[in-house]
Amino acid sequence: PILYSYFRSSCSWRVRIALALKGISYDLVPVNLLKDGGQQFSAEFKAVNPMQQVPALKIDGITLSQSLAIIHYLEDTRPNPRLLPQDPKKRAQVRMIADHIVSGIQPLQNLSVLKQMGEKKMEWAQNCIASGFQALEQILEHTAGRYSVGDEVSMADLCLVPQVSNAERFRLDMGPYPTITRINKALLELEAFKVSHPSQQPDTPAELRA
């Protein structure tokens, strides 16, 4: 497999966690979203992903983009360890939380949107994440065990940790979100979340390495 990734991309991080959890080794091709006006806009990368976004994964003779589509494919073809519970209600809760983050929070504060916001980008990002986290905190109060849904790591957790990292980068006060904070802390102790962390990637700038 070949993963096209950017160290700081939360969408790429989700996929890196899934690959690590499932023990899938891969070659990484860095796509720098800032350098050269954005390497994702090159003709070479557009041939890989016409949406000109990371991540993209070449695997089993196909090329997939969109982080959840990639994770669902990995789940379908390499089901151990399981990232979707077998219980239909828990499975729906996992998908709900993942979609809440992937559709309802992250796109509103991603690079392309922030470029449009100019000087207000920090305030905009904080407001978007805070609004989403207020809802997410309430949801997790009902679904969480050790992790987002019960005591097993799921697709929801793969979305949660990168989004908390974004919140911290935009200096959001995490005080109002104790459940999110507790789950995030527990997940960051797991090896798959450590090795996939933005501070540990081949394309991480030296000053941001752990």
From TrEMBL:
Pfam families found in the cross-reference section: GST_C_3, GST_N_2
One GO term (biological process): glutathione metabolic process
Keyword field: Cytoplasm, Isomerase, Phenylalanine catabolism, Transferase, Tyrosine catabolism
Gene name of this polypeptide: Gstz1
Chief location category: cytoplasm
Cofactor(s) listed in the protein's UniProt record: glutathione
Domain GST N-terminal: 1-82
Family listed: Belongs to the GST superfamily. Zeta family.
Ranges of residues in domain GST C-terminal: 87-206
Entry annotated with the keyword Chloroplast: no
Enzyme Commission number(s): 2.5.1.18, 5.2.1.2
GO (cellular component) term, any one: mitochondrion
Phylogenetic lineage: Eukaryota, Metazoa, Chordata, Craniata, Vertebrata
Catalytic activity: 4-maleylacetoacetate = 4-fumarylacetoacetate; RX + glutathione = an S-substituted glutathione + a halide anion + H(+)
Subcellular location: Cytoplasm
Full protein name: Maleylacetoacetate isomerase
A GO molecular-function descriptor: maleylacetoacetate isomerase activity
InterPro entries, per database record: Glutathione-S-Trfase_C-like, Glutathione-S-Trfase_C_sf, Glutathione_S-Trfase, Glutathione_S-Trfase_N, GST_C, GST_Zeta, GST_Zeta_C, GST_Zeta_N
Biochemical pathway: Amino-acid degradation; L-phenylalanine degradation; acetoacetate and fumarate from L-phenylalanine: step 5/6
